[in-house]
Amino acid sequence: MRKKILIIVLSIIIVFLTVVLLFSKYVTSHHIKIKEYAIIDKKLPSNYHGLKIVHISDILYGKSTSMDDVKKMVEKINKLNPDIVVFTGDLFSKYVKPSEKELNTLKNYLSSIDAKYEKFAIIGDNDKEFKDQFYNTISDSFTILDNESTLIYIDGDTPIRITGLNNIKKEEIFNKEENFYTILLLHKPDEIEKVKNKYDVALSGHSIGGQIKIPFYGPLIKLDGAKKYTSGRYEYNDTILFVNDGIGSQNTNMRINNNPKINFYRFYQK
Length: 270
What we know:
Layout: H1 2-26, E1 33-40, E2 52-56, H2 67-79, E3 84-87, H3 100-111, E4 118-121, H4 131-138, E5 143-144, E6 148-152, E7 160-165, E8 181-186, E9 201-204, E10 213-214, E11 218-219, E12 232-236, E13 239-243, E14 261-268
Parallel strand pairs: 1-14, 2-3, 3-4, 4-5, 7-8, 8-9, 9-13
Antiparallel strand pairs: 2-14, 6-7, 10-11, 12-13
Helix pairs in contact: 2-3, 3-4
């Protein structure tokens, strides 16, 4: 009798795990959600009150992310009518080499992302293995900030600064004297503790949100560079840090209890 009960229990567990894995692979991993945040900061210049920024990261095309997923991502972004769109790296998966046809289709989809003012991108660690393809695919539609900083003027003479940093050692090239409201684009979130300049908001990715999230425990897979900051909103010194869960997957070909995310920020002065 006990043996029969044990067999039944084990069968139920196997069926349950099989259902969870199949659901994660074919549903969760492709159901992109919008995660909205309000950023209320009295330091924000008044002409940027109501600014809308969409943040995407870690598309990792070709692993769990299909071209249909990219299409759905673009459609969701455009429905948000963003002022600015930022991409914090890893367009490609290091395990997949896209064909020329796929690169051209990706390029067309990324070009169709609408932003009222600007679109910015930084390169991720995986993209460095496909650097030429990354630049050819994304540079026509996004301004790539390769350890660079730029000013944005919207409805007035007071700008905000967008800084893209993929090498902490090169941060010293930035002007530290100009006191602008600054948004930092950083691929690996843990590197926020290494930066020396002042940033009001930092947007990062890389973590995939831990890829597998266990109820009451949290992220299971913590990548180097995202072991401390894995998902959501944090504060470090005077910087508000947001970690985007990404669109694709890093090692396994699925996300478990962890939908792909598009982050949507609304900025308010007070």
